[in-house]
Every structure is written in C-alpha cells, then in structure tokens.
Amino acid sequence: MATELITALDVDSESEALDTVKACEGCSWFKVGLQLFVRSGPQIVTTIRESCGKRVFLDLKYHDIPNTVGQAACAAADLGASLITLHASGGRKMIAAAREAVEGTDTRILAVTVLTSLDDRMLRDEVGLPETAGEAVPRLARMAVESGAHGVVASPHEASGVRAVVGKEALVVTPGIRPAWAVADDQARFTTPREAAEAGADFIVVGRPILKHPNPGEAVEHVLKELRG
Ligand code: C5P
User: Fold this and answer.
1) For residue range 75-84, what is the model confidence (pLDDT) as tens digits?
2) What angle is formed at CA 92 by the lines to CA 89 and CA 98, rounded to 5 degrees?
3) Most buried of 4, 6, 78, 138, CB within 10 angstroms?
4) Count of structural domains within the chain
C-alpha cells in the first residue's frame, strides 16, 4: 500500500483540532494523543470521524492489566478509532486481550516498543532492561505481532529492521519525520517523508511541520507530494 500521512493533532482544544482538520483537507488521517484526548474528551474521536469524514489514530499508549486494556480497546473500537496504541512491554496476555476486544471491528492495534526518549543507559539503569534499544526494539516488535498486534510504531531508522522481523503484512507507523523544508524542533534523529516511505513505513506521523506552518493545508500537500515521489 502507498504510504499514508497522519497529521498529529497535538493541540489543546477541540476547536483548534477541528480547525486543523478542516485546514488539512488533503489529509485523511489524524492522530489524537493524550494531550488533546485529556483536554477534549472522547467525543473528539467521533466528531473527527463523523462530522469531518476522517480516520482517527487514537494514540493513548495503553499499558495495564489485560482485562483493563481489553476493556479500553473495546471502548476505542466503539468510538470508531481506526488505529490504537499499547506498550509492547505490557506483555503477551495484555496484547492478546486487546486483540480479542477489537476482533470483528475495523480497529487495528499498534505496539510501541521502546520510547525513543529512552537511551541505552536509561534502559539499563532506570528501567532495568539488560538489552540495548537496538536489541529490545526488534524483540518486542516480534513478540507484539506474534501476540496479536496488527503492527508497530517505530522510528524511521528502525523501520526496515522492524519490518524484517514482523513480516510484510504488519503495519509499520513512523513518527520522527521532518520534510526538507521544515525545522527539526526537538527531533534529533529524523528522516524525510520519502526516506520513511522507502524504509517501508505504511504510515508517517507528522505534527509540528504541519501545525506550525503558516498554511497547514499547503504543508500537507507538500508532504503528500513528497510521499508520492
Ligand atoms: O515532532 P512532531 O511534532 O512531528 O511529532 C508528531 C507526533 O509523533 C507527536 O504526537 C509525538 O508524540 C509523536 N512521536 C514522536 N517521536 C517518537 C514517538 C512519537 O515524535 N519517537
């Protein structure tokens, strides 16, 4: 499938979110994360879907006991979220519970492996993981997909390695994208939309380069053009 663009709605209110959705007409997918979800409530998902006709990636990164995650996955499916996230480190039973809860719906589950904000020293000294991120990411990605996740979130630099372990059917979603015309912000290791597509991403997630652009709709068109090569 051609790589799709997801615009991250990292804003503080429903009205800002809906203005952005309207301005970004060319984009079919929007990500609702913790910031917007906690401020605006779950109805933002149904509004984007039903009133704007767009698809929603609900990025709440679930990590809890299997029963709770299963119930929360069911709730996200009821809202009509097309993609949801959970932490692979919650383990096989938690991932399987989420998968069981969305069976028969159009909701797909993505696993987050190791947050890119964690480096190898933090993983060892703070989290207590006896592996580097480079070792943990493919191991967790494989385990998550074997346990029922439909795909994984990966940095563009990890995308091809992750693809090799999860197979071609699994979804690979990459944030950390900066088009050549955008400033880097706090993203230290990023790639362009085209590079992410070439690394095998099914979806790229782009936030600030679109949100902070004087004309977000134009920024979307630039990214889509670059994706289509
Ligand atoms: O940096 P930008 O504004 O494009 O970020 C887009 C989205 O990707 C944000 O919602 C951010 O939380 C998410 N993200 C990221 N880097 C990661 C994982 C997620 O930028 N490694």
Assistant:
1) 999 999 999 9
2) 95
3) 6
4) 1
